[in-house]
Every structure is written in C-alpha cells, then in structure tokens.
Amino acid sequence: MGLVSSRSTTNNHNLYFSKDELSKILNMYSKGVARGEWKDYAIGFNKNNAFFYVFKHSLAGPEFTLNKSFEKKRRKIFYYLKLNSLNKKFENLDTLISSLNRNRIQIIN
What we know:
With 109 residues, the protein is α+β, with helices and mostly antiparallel strands. Helix content is 34%, strand content 33%. It is built from 3 helices and 5 strands, in the order ααβββββα. The chain has helices spanning 6-10, 19-34, 93-108; strands spanning 40-45, 49-55, 62-71, 76-83, 86-90. It has a 5-stranded antiparallel sheet with strand order 1-2-3-4-5, with helices on one face. The chain is globular and about 40 Å long.
C-alpha cells in the first residue's frame, strides 16, 4: 500500500468558479444567446486562474474572456475582462458583468 503525502495533494488544487459566480456568468451568457449574439462557451482552469470564454461562432476565437485570477503577492482574487483590445481589472464579478452589459448596450445603440 502506497502512502500519499500531504505535499502531493496540495499541489493539485486549481482555482474554480464558485456556484454563485458560475450562476451569474451563465445568466449573463444565456441573455446573450437569447439575443443571438453568442453561440458557444468554454471553461478552463489552472492553479491560479479560472477562465470563461464566450464565442460568437463555434469555429472562431473567443469574443471575450472572463478571468478569475488569484494574485499571490496581494493574496487576493481579481477578475479580468478581455474584450478585443480592452483588458480591464475588477475587484468583484458583479462590477465586471455590469461593465460588460454597459458595453453591449453602447455597441447596439
């Protein structure tokens, strides 16, 4: 029987979206799908980042990316929005989503 050290299990932790965060993101995504703007999404994870990619077409690159990032130096989680050449940093997800909704309304009008 092999022994599993605590050292090996701590290195395998990834950063994930919480249930509440994922619910907010999917709610925003479903509204974009209902408007006919978005067709697909993808989620990715690694040790210090969780990504949510939104695609306009399944074969194209992502239209924008939401990134939940853990910054070790500050020991804090930040959210990033990468949309075209725009790359903004937010301290909470609600502000990021409201900013994205404002950008969508300005583009449509």
